[in-house]
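Example 3.2
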Amino acid sequence: MAISFICGAIVCTLLLFGAKTVIPTLAETDNLTAESENVTQSFIDLLPDIERIYRESLIAPFEKAESKIYDEDIAEFYRELLDSTGLRTPDEEAN
């Protein structure tokens, strides 16, 4: 039984490698690097910016709470607290 399993695995591996050599994986072009970069970049553009979405969902409640603080001293302390904890970066302050 073990011998038949090993023989089957070998046959399947040989079939996969044989199919790989017969079936072309890339079309012939003059400039392969430019084409592959364009394809890769187009796939990357389809993905959402997960980091931006995560940071926005993390900081949105804190910014909403900041808008409800009317005492200027407490608001300044709250801004410094957000800055020191790293929740808000300097480029987000401009927005």
